[in-house]
Amino acid sequence: MRNGRALVQGTLFPEGTAANSSETEVAGDDWAFLRLTAPPAAIPTGSRQVRTADLFCGCGGLSLGVREACRSLGFACVASLAVDSDESAAACFARNFTDAEVRACDVGEILDGRLGDRLTVREKEWATRVGPVDLLVGGPPCQGHSDLNNFSRRSDPKNSLYLFMGRAAEVWNPRHVLVENVVGVKRAKQNVVSNVADRLARLGYFIDEGFVDLWRLGVPQSRRRHVLHASRERKIKIDEVQGRCQIAPRDLRWAIGDLKDVPPKSLLDQPAVSSPENRERIAYLFDNDLYDLPDEQRPSCHRDKQHSYRSIYGRLRWDKPAQTVTTGFYSMPMGRYVHPSRRRTLTAHEAARLQFFPDYFDFSVVKNRTRLARMIGNAVPMKLSYVFARELLATEAPKA
């Protein structure tokens, strides 16, 4: 027994339950999944395969959710292609998805045609190289990288990277598509969401798009994202999926209560060293049993004028979810990131747990604190793709 949970086959599960007891929770128990220190056994290669392509893959949050969804359904997941322009993120993806073809490059080096046009020579080559794709996923940045190369000039419609997801569907003709993005993507120039949705509809896909509150899916933070999914085979409503898969809100203690005194043996568990001014502010919060820093303790930009940034310089509460985890979780001025009971900000390990990365996920290829924070903060919690991939693929699972 540990923390009121029983050890079953090397994995922690609530006493009296077994793995796969719930379709909503990963491996039947989200709490146990996040504390796994070794990856689950691979599905035998002779099983039904689901082939994926992941654009703007980062370190692999979306692909991790798909892989676990496939595992829960008895499918082998094959990462046919993963692409990200961040070399550190691509290296981390490769470490955790050893079967994948990972490309550390701009997506435009693979998809160099316009949405709606005939495939280019390069795109035909990549269509053949990757082969059939069952599920295309991606979390494109909401701003175009206009100065990366010629194909992405400021005046070019492809400046919005979201459009690449539609182009990828034209190139690989996947059975299903899942696109995640920030809520503000609906206000993006060029109406990228509607343009991609319209194109996918013309290609024969059933479409739905809308907002997902990740706390409803069991993620212990107040993160809200926009999701577009398309399927050639199934009509799925995002709101209905959220309703069926909703879990009671989880607080910070559920997620990271067991990590507060983990020895700092690696970069993942080493706390950031705050500036002397911010160490004084952290001390003030604890000495006065406060969770919001008073204006008189803040810098002049907050102290001398009205503002609505109450969470900035704030301390987290054990009995509430975290605020949205961003790349600034190491820094007190970037949000409510002071630990509830330790005089420091969150560690990368704690932030990774809040982003729904299990303990076995290997970040060791990243040796730089800034890159590690960027990678974790920009990731998509795998619970999102887990839930929607299961919905898209469930009818194909072998009957018990």
Protein model, in words:
The strands form two sheets. The chain has a seven-stranded mixed sheet, sandwiched between helices. The protein is globular. A hairpin with a 2-residue loop joins strand 1 and strand 2 (11-14). It is built from 13 helices and nine strands. By secondary structure, it is an alpha/beta fold. It folds into three domains: 1-36, no CATH class; 45-249 and 381-396, 3-Layer(aba) Sandwich (Rossmann fold); 253-377, DNA Methylase, subunit A, domain 2 (DNA Methylase, Chain A, domain 2), CATH 3.90.120.10.
Main beta-sheet strand count, sense and barrel state:
7 strands, mixed
Strand order of the largest sheet: 5-4-3-6-7-9-8
Low-pLDDT segments, ≥5 res: 1-21, 144-159
Kindly report how far apart the N and C termini lie.
31 Å
Number of domains: 3
Please write the CATH class name of the largest domain: Alpha Beta
Secondary-structure map with pairings?
Layout: E1 5-8, E2 11-14, H1 30-34, E3 49-55, H2 61-73, E4 76-84, H3 87-96, E5 102-104, H4 121-130, E6 135-138, H5 163-172, E7 176-181, H6 192-202, E8 206-213, E9 224-231, H7 238-245, H8 252-256, H9 276-287, H10 300-303, H11 348-354, H12 369-377, H13 382-393
Parallel strand pairs: 3-4, 3-6, 4-5, 6-7
Antiparallel strand pairs: 1-2, 7-9, 8-9
